[in-house]
Specification:
Layout: E1 12-30, E2 39-45, E3 56-59, E4 64-73, E5 84-88, H1 92-98, E6 101-111, E7 119-121, E8 132-137, E9 149-152, H2 158-166, H3 197-206, E10 210-223, E11 239-240, H4 247-256, E12 259-261, H5 264-275, E13 279-280, E14 282-283, E15 294-296, H6 306-319, H7 323-326, H8 330-333, E16 342-344, E17 348-349, H9 351-356, H10 358-364, E18 376-379, H11 386-398, E19 405-409, E20 412-413, H12 430-436, H13 439-447, E21 455-456, H14 459-482, H15 499-521, H16 525-553, H17 559-579, H18 584-594, H19 619-644, E22 654-659, H20 662-665, H21 673-677, E23 683-685, E24 703-708, E25 712-713, E26 720-721
Parallel strand pairs: 2-5, 3-8, 12-19, 18-19, 20-21, 22-23
Antiparallel strand pairs: 1-2, 1-7, 1-10, 3-9, 4-5, 4-6, 7-8, 11-13, 14-17, 15-16, 22-24, 25-26
Helix pairs in contact: 4-5, 4-11, 12-13, 13-14, 14-16, 14-17, 14-18, 15-16, 15-17, 15-19, 17-18
Length: 728
């Protein structure tokens, strides 16, 4: 009643609310069985304001009811000793306690079906509520609460409405759209339903019809806009049928043809479509797109005339939807119809219908886009909203869903998983993140999060993503620095490269396949973790570390150096393309640093992922180098321990001896083991090292003695070697 309009289910929230509860007598005037003559049927309700709309009471046909005589009451009780009441046997104890009935005798018990045909008086009979109130069977009457008998107001609830239609009950119009009783309603005219509950209870008490009253705290529907409690009120509205033209079946078939990410979204949307009632598309608001219908005042039928519709459409296109309200109806009806014979509908369309139409005017009239959309992307709440209304609107007008795929994401939470709120002070503003960290950090947080669940964000989480960003940026800086002056004449074919460089190309092939698969699956965060690991571990901590001596110290025409530079060029081309969707500003900055061209077409974002040749794939080489890196891991662990104990400084001061099985030693045939370990020298041995040596559980069979290198330090490469100084 605050918004003065019907609300869709998606616009409803449930909050705690305290309601006034009342127990009310309905005196029996025409008994279906002698046992209930002179008794009163007792109902319980949490909405006293609906009593003026009562036109029946409902019982459960299979429920057992007791006819009791009150024998004693507490001082505050409204019950009278000697009176007869009809209450469900299962609800007797609770009802007597709440109505302060301290003693009673059971005069008879009967099945609910025995009450069929009973007629009662309205509790306010004699005050212009002088009509019969029949007792009717209803499956929704239960013994879970109340008295087991329900009061029926056909104008204020779906169950009440359906029961009323089945039994041809009158449907009184009692409450206006402003939430106030109409002027025609006796005793309560003009009073607001929010404020009238106690007034109704007092009036029933004065009439001798109130048996008890109380308060109940429960979950109750509220408007998501005003946050005020709602009322149930039957009104004349416009509907789109879910069954008449097979809309439900079309929508369910379209759901089966749609890809959902994550897959659970399919069942959620399907469940909502399967159980939804007809679509109420009218709203009573002062704004919105009008329902452009004229209704014949005599027949009640909508006017169906293409010429009239065309005039409306042409006017809207030229002037906007407000022309419907600003124009004389004859403008649209033309000379063929008398405007006085027709009522112009002033309701607006459900705004979900508006959003459900977006696919038509964003996709269909543009040459650079296609219909249906490849993907609809929104939060999990939109299974009730945008995904839902778009599906129905499109299936009704175009016979299929407006999308090929639907992706749903969770909501942003605080760092500790709590809901963000101003009072908790845990709101993270995107603008603040961009101001303090840069937009790419925020984008990194997005791609690094599992969007299928609620996402957490806060200072510590952002700090960790800033560290990730720094590593990615440093990787690009290192590559750029070492590609200075690189040209095509220096490029080597893969067949001319050393194993280590070919292994990097294989890893690029693997990463390309992984990222393409991730993009196809719309499942980014595991792939991004792998991409970060590739930059931080495979490249920075391994390949760059091993190859830096070649890049810094070898001759400019050395094959090893040229191979490394060729690999760095290919790696750069891949990385900037792969990172472009995620850290778009940094990828563009890196691309332009390498290709400083002012042409508008010179942008990393106008590229696609590079095509990686299958010749880069080498599974056998990859398996071999996985074992080599395991051995290297033990060596670096041993050296790190020596550095921690301050027995050496740089790893180049070490000359490790690796004790391993012959098959592990042969892995290093033709390779410079010292170069891979970044030591001055390295030797292998097959005999056991005794009790000495360093090993780790994850790499069994490898033990390392981290001996110190002997000789002099070379001022160029910093290795400690015996022959330094032997040649002046």
């Amino acid at each position: 009643p605050v918004e003065k309009t019907a609300l869709a289910e998606a616009e409803i929230e449930y909050h705690d609310h305290t309601s006034t509860t009342i127990f009310v007598r309905f005196p029996v005037v025409n008994a279906s069985t002698p046992e209930i003559e002179g008794a009163a049927i007792v109902i319980w309700t949490t909405t006293p304001w609906t009593m003026p709309g009562n036109r029946a009471v409902a019982f459960g046909p299979d429920i057992e009811y007791a006819v009791i005589e009150v024998t004693s009451v507490a001082d505050e009780s409204l019950a009278q000793p000697g009176e007869k009441l009809i209450i469900a046997t299962a609800r007797l104890g609770d009802t007597c306690a709440q109505c302060a009935i301290t003693g009673h005798t059971v005069q008879a018990t009967l099945k609910g079906s025995d009450l069929a045909g009973t007629i009662c008086k309205h509790p306010l009979n004699g005050q212009d509520y002088d009509f019969e109130v029949p007792a009717l069977p209803a499956a929704f009457a239960t013994t879970e609460e109340g008295t087991g008998i329900v009061h029926i107001a056909p104008g204020h609830g779906a169950d009440d409405w359906e029961l009323g239609r089945e039994n041809e009950l009158p449907v009184p119009d009692t409450v206006g759209e402003n939430g106030c009783f109409l002027d025609t309603i006796p005793l309560f005219a003009g009073q607001h339903v929010y404020k009238v509950n106690d007034v109704v209870a007092d009036t029933l008490a004065d009439a001798g019809s109130l048996l008890g009253r109380g308060k109940l705290s429960h979950r109750y529907p509220h408007s998501w806009r005003s946050k005020a409690p709602l009322i149930f009120r039957n009104t004349t509205q416009w509907f789109i049928s879910m069954s008449t033209t097979g809309l439900r079946d079309k929508a369910l078939a379209a759901i089966d043809d749609t890809r959902f990410v994550p897959a659970s979204g399919k069942n959620r949307l399907r469940g909502l479509i399967e159980t939804r009632p007809d679509w109420c598309v009218s709203r009573q608001r002062a704004w919105g797109v009008p329902i452009t219908v004229f209704v014949n005042k005599k027949t009640g039928e909508p006017l169906r005339d293409q010429a009239v519709l065309d005039r409306i459409a042409d006017t809207f296109e030229a002037e906007g939807a407000d022309a419907w309200f600003a124009s004389n109806p004859s403008r649209f009806l033309g000379s063929e119809y008398d405007a006085s014979d027709y009522e112009q509908v002033t309701d607006i369309l459900d705004v979900w219908f508006d959003s459900g139409c977006t696919h038509t005017f964003t996709l269909e009239d543009r040459d650079d886009l296609q219909w249906p959309a490849s993907l609809y992307l929104e939060g999990t709440d939109q299974h009730r909203g945008w995904f839902h209304s778009s599906l129905l609107e499109s299936c009704g007008t175009r016979g299929r869903a407006p999308y090929d795929a639907v992706l749903t994401h969770g909501f942003v939470m605080g760092e500790d998983g709590s809901k963000m709120s101003k009072s908790l002070g845990n709101i993270v503003s995107p603008e603040d993140v961009v101001e303090s960290h840069g937009a790419d950090i925020l984008r990194l947080w997005v791609v690094g999060s599992d969007y299928s669940e609620d996402l957490r964000i806060g200072p510590e989480i952002l700090k960790s993503h800033a560290d990730i960003y720094r590593r990615l940026r440093n990787t690009l800086r290192y590559i750029l620095g070492n590609l200075d002056g690189f040209d095509e004449g220096e490029r080597l074919e893969i067949t001319d490269m050393p194993e280590l460089d070919r292994w990097v190309l294989h890893r690029l092939w693997e990463m390309d396949a992984l990222l393409r698969h991730a993009c196809d699956d719309l499942h980014f965060h595991p792939a991004f973790a792998e991409l970060h690991n590739f930059c931080a571990v495979d490249l920075s901590a391994f390949y760059f570390d091993v190859r830096k001596d070649s890049l810094y110290c070898d001759r400019l025409d050395d094959i090893k150096r040229s191979a490394a530079r060729t690999v760095l060029d290919e790696t750069f081309n891949c990385l900037v393309a792969w990172l472009a969707p995620f850290i778009c500003f940094t990828a563009e900055e890196a691309w332009l640093a390498r290709h400083p061209n002012d042409s508008p077409a010179n942008s990393v974002h106008l590229r696609t992922f590079p095509d990686i040749p299958d010749t880069w794939r080498d599974d056998e080489l990859a398996a071999k180098w996985e074992k080599i890196r395991s051995v290297r891991r033990v060596v670096t662990g041993a050296i790190e321990l020596e550095r921690k104990e301050k027995r050496i400084g740089s790893s180049l001061q070490a000359h490790p001896v690796i004790h391993a099985a012959p098959e592990d030693i042969t892995l290093f045939d033709g390779l410079d083991a010292a170069e891979l370990f970044i030591t001055s020298n390295a030797h292998f041995a097959t005999d056991g090292p005794g009790d000495k040596g360093f090993s780790i559980l994850e790499v069994p069979g490898i033990t390392v003695l981290p001996n110190q290198a002997e000789g002099e330090k070379c001022e160029r490469c910093w290795k400690v070697l015996h022959d330094i100084g032997s040649n002046a």
